[in-house]
From TrEMBL:
Species per Swiss-Prot/TrEMBL record: Saccharopolyspora gloriosae
NCBIfam families: PRK14109.1
Cofactor: Mg(2+)
Higher taxonomy: Bacteria, Bacillati, Actinomycetota, Actinomycetes, Pseudonocardiales
Catalytic activity, reaction form: [glutamine synthetase]-O(4)-(5'-adenylyl)-L-tyrosine + phosphate = [glutamine synthetase]-L-tyrosine + ADP; [glutamine synthetase]-L-tyrosine + ATP = [glutamine synthetase]-O(4)-(5'-adenylyl)-L-tyrosine + diphosphate
UniProt enzyme class: transferase
GO cellular component: cytosol
This protein's record includes keyword Ubl conjugation: no
Region span, Adenylyl transferase: 505-1004
Protein's name in the database: Bifunctional glutamine synthetase adenylyltransferase/adenylyl-removing enzyme
HAMAP family, per database record: GlnE (MF_00802)
Length: 1004
């Protein structure tokens, strides 16, 4: 393209710098508008905005035309263009994308005022849009008719369409402005189309009133179909409708009115297409409700029920229209039961695709492979198959339906999100190619049309990247989305099990009782008769659920047979299935995602905790097919999500119930990832600790709000921090761990300390009461026995009070307990200040003297002899046994007490980090640290495994073979491991650790 550039002297900027191709003409037009001088732009914001238009030359040409055609309007418009970014972005965005809107503004220059955004919350609804269109044809003598009415309607409609386009395109030019989403644009276009249909009905009735002397408007209902029905219309599209007459007597008048409405709407707005009616264009234009019902029951084909997915009454007699929808809606959701339903839908899609000329296929946004129809057909097929039992899928909107399919587990979440993204992209391209001349088209520019592709790319917000032009970026993005759509279309649309959803064969389970018992015994079930009863309970009856279970169970029986407890696993599967019987996605997820069934069998045949949690947190089941979501969720994200969810509830009991629910979800997610070997042990401990801390934070927040709202307070007089102690402080909790904590408070300015302490005490009492309430979940015990004076001491103290106590009366074991103190909830600054203040207590200057060392050893020996439960085996007790958790932790803590004052790296609350630090500073031998760390990790993992296997906490390794086999599986041993080997490994590791303890802790 020639740019018309002429030689220029000096260094004055050229319009070429702003993206104009015809530089000479651009400079002339800019000068005429008063935006350019010899020194360059005189109104930089306007010229820069023009440079960001999809087509700067087209936008400037249109502005020049508008300036010449509307001299009276120009001064005010020019002033607003310079001052108002919304008007500037809207006008230049529209004019740079659409020559048709330039023509409209030249004809109706006053419509530039529509580019002023309406105030928030004042977006016009269908009624307001209808009023505006109808008012355009009202006169002193009544409603205009004929060409006069059509002309008025066309102008008013284009003006309203201009508002939608401006909201759509404004952020392309002024990127700081919020724009309308694709869904908002499509909904706005649909609402405007409905208003246009209603206005056409008014004018049509007026035409008939003048000619026939009758009015049939109350005898006719207009049903929107297709994209109008789904509120996802294009800028330029036929509007699909079906007409319903109130009665046989009203049929002639209703037919005349429908015909007249179509004749008005065509030249005024868009073509009204009634071809989706029974028998198509050969059928009657209007039928009664009984006529439609009779046809759909006897003659309707599959595609007609598919079309009814989007049926919506929009004009005329709305009550009659709703009666039509109510009558046909149930038939939509039984259509999938028709013989050859799925093949019919697939065949229809192939026929549509075959009609696309080969030379246009690559550019066809709508009908070609990877186009919009691929998304819509796949979504509609899935809706009609699965929507029979799940009302959440019955949305007429493609995007909403896709979201529901993803959320319900019928489509993988990632697949649903990808399809939504690609559908939006393709629909946005479709909108932009239609906007250029406001013509119905679904074709991209020719792929060698660089200028056309460049403008289209800019109109959707794409720019050049590296060596690739904007047009090349657009083509690459189009192909990426098109290929993705085609891949997902084929994955979903041709899913083999779609045809078998309601007729899964059950021949594999139709055995004689004797044969079934023999088969189950051969698989390794210790009670085949009991297993058979579970199978019969799951597959009895003729329900769709029973058929799907019949298809699943042969695979599940084999998978469960490879777990430590097949009988327990099958019982757990039955309980979970019965508990989730009304959860519509449960069986489909197992059926369609093989990895979910495989992992679920492994979990149920190993753990009693998982099925107990699963029936109350079934949503976690979906994560089994998504390893990153199952195992890679950041604990900080979990904590943030939990606190945000709880903050929505003002009532404390409801807030804590929400916290329990989210904790249950996280416990189950972590347990599944742990048992499947997807989470390292340290991540398991950290995640469990983070969840506990988040629950504490949520309970504290809601308790502070509640107590502060009481009449005796009506304010928050104190800051409160929760200090994690023990394994919570070390971020090393297990599944059944209590939360050892202390509470610190600080009065706000001018508040007496006693008042602050009293307030904080009330808060703490409420936290403990809320969290300690009975529950089916693993308990939430808040243990504050490590506070000064133990159970007889105050629940809350200030920092100074704590320091006074520790300095005057603190014992060595209390300094030892403080080694793991860290802020976990509440006021973080106060918590950090508390921990800094107690550093001299827990890391005493000069270390420990001999007397204090002997005291620690004496206490440890007493713990070993007195706290081990009666009858417990000290060799296999994970907490207090030889080489167990207490041995390792006390050894490290003695090292920290003795050397923490001189080695800052030892001042950590984590056991494993503390062992590493002790090696680095030379106060612990590397081999000793390795053996202590191995024993500690194995004891923690074994303790967790016992909780997972039994469903309740326990510190003793089980003696029963089946339980010990399950513990071995939870620890990652292979399925055929000898339990003796598991015990030998544990005893060997802890024996070595105990030797280190004797040498380092007792200096023996």
């Amino acid at each position: 393209m020639s740019n018309g550039n002429s030689s220029r002297s000096g260094s004055a900027p050229s319009p070429a710098r702003y993206g104009f191709s015809d530089v000479v003409r651009a400079e002339q037009q800019l000068r005429a508008a008063g935006w350019w001088s010899d020194a360059g732009p005189t109104d930089e914001p306007v010229v820069s905005a023009l440079s960001r238009a999809p087509d700067p030359d087209l936008a400037l040409l249109a502005v020049d035309r508008l300036r010449e055609a509307a001299a009276d309007e120009w001064p005010e418009l020019a002033k607003e263009l310079a001052a108002d970014t919304a008007v500037r972005g809207g006008l230049i965005g529209v004019l740079g994308a659409s020559s048709a809107f330039a023509d409209h503004l030249v004809a109706y220059p006053q419509d530039w005022r529509r580019l002023r955004p309406r105030p928030a919350g004042e977006r016009p609804d269908v009624a307001a849009l209808t009023d505006e269109l109808v008012n355009s044809v009202r006169s002193a003598d009544g409603v205009l008719t004929g060409t006069e009415a059509i002309s008025a309607l066309r102008g008013a409609y284009r003006g309203l369409l201009l508002e939608v386009a401006a909201a759509d395109l404004r952020p392309i030019v002024e990127r700081d402005l919020a724009g309308a989403s694709f869904e908002d644009v499509a909904a706005g276009l649909s609402d405007l189309a409905v208003a246009a249909l209603r206005a056409a009905l008014v004018v049509g009735a007026a035409e008939l009133t003048g000619r026939e002397g009758g009015d049939s408007a109350e005898d006719l209902a207009v049903i929107a179909m297709g994209k109008t029905g789904g509120r996802e219309l294009n800028y330029v599209s036929d509007v699909d409708v079906v007409f319903v007459a109130k009665s046989e007597e009203a049929l002639p008048g209703a037919t005349k009115l429908a015909s007249m409405m179509m004749r008005v709407a065509g030249p005024a707005f868009f073509e009204v297409d009634a071809a989706l009616r029974p028998e198509g264009k050969a059928g009657a234009l209007v039928r009664t409700l009984d006529g439609y019902q009779s046809y759909y029951r006897r003659w309707a084909r599959t595609w007609e029920f598919q079309a009814l997915l989007k049926a919506r009454p929009v004009a005329g007699d709305v009550e009659l229209g709703q009666q039509y929808v109510d009558a046909v809606w149930p038939q939509v959701w039984t259509a999938a039961e028709r013989e050859d339903f799925v093949p019919d839908v697939r065949s229809m899609r192939r026929r549509v695709e075959d009609h696309v000329p080969a030379e246009l296929s690559e550019r066809e946004l709508k009908l070609g492979p990877g186009g919009l129809r691929d998304v819509e057909f796949a979504v509609q097929l899935l809706q009609m198959v699965h929507g029979r039992s799940d009302a959440d899928l019955r949305s007429p909107s493609t995007v909403d339906a896709l979201r529901s399919l993803g959320e319900g587990g019928y489509v993988a979440r990632a697949d649903a999100a990808d399809l939504v993204e690609s559908y939006r992209f393709l629909r946005t391209l479709e909108h932009r190619v239609q906007l250029r001349r406001l013509r119905r088209t679904h074709l991209l520019p020719e792929l060698d049309d660089k200028d056309g592709l460049h403008v289209l790319a800019r109109s959707v917000g794409l720019r050049s990247s590296g060596r690739r032009s904007a047009g090349e970026v657009l083509v690459a993005e189009y192909r990426r989305h098109s290929n993705r759509v085609r891949r997902l279309h084929e994955k979903l649309f041709y899913r083999p099990l779609l045809e078998a959803v309601a007729k899964v064969p059950t021949d594999a389970l139709r055995l004689t009782t004797g044969a079934a018992v023999q088969r189950l015994a051969a698989l390794g079930y210790s009670s085949p008769e009991g297993a058979l009863r579970h199978i019969e309970a799951l597959t009895s009856g003729v329900s769709r659920r029973a058929h799907i279970q019949g298809a699943l169970l042969p695979m599940l029986l084999d998978l469960l047979a490879n777990t430590p407890d097949p009988d327990g696993g099958l019982l757990a599967y039955r309980k979970v299935s019965e508990a989730l019987a009304e959860t519509p996605w449960y069986l489909r997820l197992l059926r369609d995602e093989g990895v979910v069934a495989e992992r679920l069998a492994q979990l149920l045949g190993t753990s009693k905790l998982v099925p107990e949690l699963l029936v109350r947190a079934p949503e976690v089941l979906r994560l089994l097919s998504d390893t990153p979501a199952l195992a890679e969720r950041d604990p900080r994200e979990v904590a943030t999500s939990l606190r945000s969810a709880v903050a929505r509830h003002a009532e404390p009991s409801r807030a804590v119930a929400a916290a329990r629910s989210l904790r249950r979800h996280e416990l189950l997610r972590i347990a599944c990832a742990d048992l499947l070997g997807l989470l390292p042990p340290t991540e398991v401990f950290r995640a469990l600790s983070s969840v506990w801390a988040a629950v504490l934070e949520a309970a504290l927040d809601t308790s502070v709000r509640d107590v502060a709202a009481r009449p005796e307070w009506q304010t928050v007089p104190a800051r409160i921090a929760v200090i994690g102690m023990g394994r919570l402080g070390g971020a090393e909790l297990g599944y059944g761990s209590d939360a050892d904590v202390m509470f610190v408070c600080e009065p706000l300015p001018e508040v007496p300390e006693s008042t602050a302490v009293r307030f904080a005490t009330s808060v703490v009492e409420q936290v403990r009461r809320l969290l300690g309430a009975p529950s089916q979940d693993p308990p939430l015990e808040v243990d504050i026995d490590l506070r000064p004076e133990g159970r007889s001491g105050p629940l809350v103290r200030t920092v100074d009070s704590y320091l006074n106590y520790y300095r005057r009366w603190g014992e060595v074991w209390e300094a030892q307990a403080l080694l793991r103190a860290r802020p976990v909830a509440g006021d973080s600054e106060l918590g950090e200040r508390f921990c800094t203040a107690i550093d001299p207590i827990r890391y005493p200057d000069g270390g420990l003297d001999d007397a204090r060392i002997r005291e620690i050893r004496r206490i440890k020996a007493r713990v070993d002899s007195e706290r081990l439960p009666r009858g417990a085996d000290p060799a296999t007790h994970t907490k207090l046994g030889r080489g167990g958790l207490a041995d390792v932790e006390w050894t490290l803590q003695l090292v920290q007490l003795r050397h923490g004052h001189e080695h800052e790296s030892l001042r950590v609350t984590s056991t494993m980090r503390g062992l590493d630090a002790a090696v680095q500073v030379g106060v612990l031998d590397e081999q000793d640290a390795a053996e202590l760390g191995e024993a500690w990790t194995l004891a923690m993992r074994s303790r967790n495994a016992v909780m997972l296997v039994r469903g309740k906490s326990g510190d003793q390794l089980p003696k029963q073979v089946r339980e010990l086999t399950a513990v071995a599986a939870a620890l990652g041993y292979s399925g055929d491991v000898d339990t003796g080997e598991v015990l030998d490994d544990y005893l060997r590791v802890t024996r070595r650790a105990r030797a280190v303890v004797e040498r380092v802790f007792y200096e023996d």
